[in-house]
Amino acid sequence: MPNGFDASNPPFDRLTQPEIGELRAALDIAYLAPGEAVLRPGQAAEHLHVVIKGAVEARDGETLNAVLGPKDSFDSRALVHGAAGEAFVAAEETLCYLIPRALVLDLIARNPGFAAFFYSEVSAKLDAFARSHRAEGMESVLRARVGEASRGPALLLPGDASIQAAARQMQEAHINAAFVRDGARTGVVTGMNLAKAVLLRGLPPETPVREACHFDVIAVEAGDFIFDALLLMTRHDKRRIAVRSGGAFTGFLEDIHILGLVAGNSQLIPGRIDRARGVEELAGPAQDIQRQVERLHRQGVKVEQIAEITSDLNRRLFVRLFELLAPPAIRAQGCLVIMGSEGRGEQTVRTDQDNGLLLEGPVPEAELAGFRTTFSAALAAFGFPPCPGGVMVSNPLWSQPVEGLVRQLRLWIMERTPEAAMNLAIFFDAVAVTGRAGLLAEAKQAMATALRDDRALIARFASLVEAFETPALGMLSGLMERVGLAPDAIDIKKAGIFPVVQGIRAMALDRGVMVPSTAGRIEALAAAGSLSEAFGRELLSALRVFMEYRLRAQLEAVQRGRLEHEAMVAPGALSAADRDILRDAFRIVREFRELLRNRYALAGFG
Asked: What is the reported pTM?
């Protein structure tokens, strides 16, 4: 009986101790010679193979789909569903554990967590396995720092200020608690304290605020854990405690702020955005939006829900920034639009600015020039990097009267170049955020009319999916690890997200589907018969797999300060189960690319 089997390797980490004992008792070991075929397409499997050492190639005809290494398993489809989807061939001398089919089926029937690994649909597999990386729930909230939830800046009132003046300043600052400095001591006053002082104690409004505050301040450090703060609040029966940093009071932590951590603060941020009276007051909520992405991910929220929440909050931010910066003529004549992943509602960690401005007619040139500069600069200051391709309000090409943009769209249609096709693709994702939404509808209708029945241009549009290769997962990692180099990394955006998004864009344009989100487009295309419902579900699941892995890469890149790696995923650093999910997702992308090649004769685009 082999004793070296690693039961901590997913999916075996889902098994109970008695189940692990059964598995180890049933294990055998097989030797595979170089070039030996283990499974052929359509063949059923009598064992689940788990690689101990060596490498096994997964092939579809002449196409190398993956190279499986130590701890990788194969082939769950052949084992459970009766037919291998690929050929599995030993690339070198290889040792594998053999787990009998009957035992695997028995464990699947008994253990839902283990069974998830063998689901045929990527969507079900992702839902089951993503929880192991992210489902920390309330535990992650308790391990958060006080500074993540507390609110500032602190308002400091002099002790001799009147109760009426204190109430006015707190109202203007949109806060319900302030600090009071009275000589050498510091106290706290709340809106309720002020109300009770006047209504219940009968103090005149001119009374110094020191008479209404209390000086037994309970405080916590910004770097302390939320768990410590909760203990302090419970011990002293407080719903609000003061927060210190560097020896100074910086704000307050309230019970509702801790509740906000559970929901990623998404219910608190809109109020801060709406209350902003200047651009500088939007910087805080802009950063909160980014911080909440990590919190939501840590708490096990699905990536598509994170994207939906984040997109909604970003749009609120853009609207308020537009209201604060746009001169009256632009507010009256303009429509602010967002494009790219922001327009599709698929943005998580913010990347480039993708926005524009449509105008119903001319506005004063000086006002327009000033708005272009200040709007894009403010977003850059909030952490939205400038778009390398210039798709942003500061570029006159993307901020002009609607008549001019329609002319530009028609020029791109006539140009027939990949660059022109990409600009059309970017605009196709545009969504109106605020202002005259009819202007965007007018421009999109003009584009759709010009493209109608233009099969050559739709094919050019679809051919952009060939810009990047869909990788054979693991093809280089085994070799590179053996020669002492790091495993290869995959640009998940180029290899996975872009082919799905762009291919669905092309099909949506072809069928006149004007829904902005990829999920909405897939649903509409399936309803129209352009995609089967089953393949549409798998495509959407594959997209969400890529979004999930990209989000992990983005959060790690932010943490390490290496933003250039925000889309890079190293297969060698993934668990066997994660690699299996990623393999399935890339398989679906390859199928989709083949569908597009056949439908639009993409072989003609070299």
From this structure: 0.70
Q: With 0-12 CB in 10 A as exposed, 13-18 as middle and 19+ as buried, what is 17?
A: exposed
**Cα separation of 579 and 322, whole Å?**
43
**Distance (Å, rounded) from C-alpha 158 to C-alpha 140?**
39
The tokens of 159 are what? 């002790």
**What DSSP letter does each residue of 335-357 carry, written as one string?**
EEEE-HHHHHT---S--S--EEE
pLDDT confidence of residue 595: 94
The fold adopted by the segment(s) 303-452 is Beta Polymerase; domain 2 (3.30.460)
Distance CA 406, CA 439 (A): 10
d(Cα 501, Cα 492) in Å, to the nearest integer? 13
Write out the residue limits of the CATH 1.20.120 domain(s) in the chain.
460-604
Cα distance from N-terminal residue to C-terminal residue, the chain: 56
Pairing of strands 37-39, 177-182: unpaired
Residues carrying CATH 3.30.460.10, the chain? 303-452
Give the span between the Cα atoms of 553 and 564, in whole angstroms. Answer: 10
Would you give the distance in Å from CA 200 to the centre of its chain?
A: 51
DSSP SS3 for 93: coil
CATH architecture of 144-266: Roll (3.10)
Could you write out the DSSP letters of every residue in 141-206? Answer: HHTSBHHHH-B-PPPEEETTSBHHHHHHHHHHTT-SEEEEEETTEEEEEEHHHHHHHHHTS---TT
Distance from C-alpha of 586 to C-alpha of 31, rounded to nearest angstrom: 29
- The whole-number pLDDT of residue 293 equals 85
**CATH T-level assignment (fold) for domain 460-604:** Four Helix Bundle (Hemerythrin (Met), subunit A) (1.20.120)
Weakly modelled stretches of the chain, pLDDT under 70? 1-3, 119-143, 259-268, 470-488, 605-606
Mean pLDDT (the chain, rounded): 85
* Distance, CA of 512 to CA of 504 (rounded, Å): 12
Distances (CA, A) of 218 to 176, 242, 252, 253: 17, 6, 10, 11
The residue assigned the tokens 């802009």 is 286
DSSP-assigned states of every residue in 212-266: T-B----EEETTSBHHHHHHHHHHTT-SEEEEEETTEEEEEEEHHHHHHHHTTTT
- Beta bridge pairs of residue 162: 208
Tens digit of each residue's pLDDT (9 = 90 or more) over 495-514:
899 999 999 999 998 888 98
What is 12-118's CATH superfamily?
Answer: Jelly Rolls (2.60.120.10)
Q: What does DSSP say about strands 355-359 and 334-338: parallel, antiparallel, or unpaired?
A: antiparallel
Closest CA to 294 of 478, 141, 466: 141
Interatomic CA distance for residues 390 and 368, integer angstroms: 17
Residue range(s) occupied by CATH 2.60.120.10 in the chain: 12-118
Specify the pLDDT at position 260.
63
User: Which tens digits make up the pLDDT trace of 151-176?
Assistant: 777 899 999 999 999 999 998 887 88
